[in-house]
Write a structure and sequence with these properties.
This protein is about 20% helix and about 50% strand. The chain is built from two helices and seven strands.
Length: about 120
């Protein structure tokens, strides 16, 4: 079975790279699934979105993302996020606190994205 090469990158670090069987991402046009052989694509990531990667080997990767782009060329998927964090790096109580803030919009959005990733991961 064919695989896709995936890179999940934020402005400040490489989040994850490897081979996967499928990638799903929330874009401004809706949720999209990328399988090997997908047509070329450039999509804008949804603010407060979630990206899910099913690696060929290992556990499913779930990340909260804040803005950015998704590019598909051949069997390579590159996810360039303005900000991203893996669901297992999220402190749920801190994310809940941030999500309920009214005075700091960016922290609120990131908290909401983190909570969405944690929920999808089932943590």
């Amino acid at each position: 079975m064919a695989d896709i090469t995936v890179q999940l990158v934020s402005v400040d670090r490489m989040i994850w790279t490897g081979q996967a069987s499928i990638v799903t991402a929330q874009t401004t046009e809706g949720e999209i699934g990328i399988l090997p052989g997908h047509e070329p694509l450039l999509g804008q990531l949804k603010d407060n979105g979630v990206v899910t990667i099913n690696p060929v080997d290992g556990e499913r990767i779930i990340a909260a993302v804040q803005g950015g782009f998704l590019s598909v060329v051949g069997d390579k998927v590159t996810i360039l996020a303005d900000w991203a964090v893996l669901s297992d790096e999220v402190n749920s109580s801190e994310a809940e606190s941030n999500a309920s803030q009214d005075d700091d919009e960016l922290s609120k959005w990131r908290g909401q994205a983190e909570l969405a990733a944690v929920r999808r991961a089932g943590n």
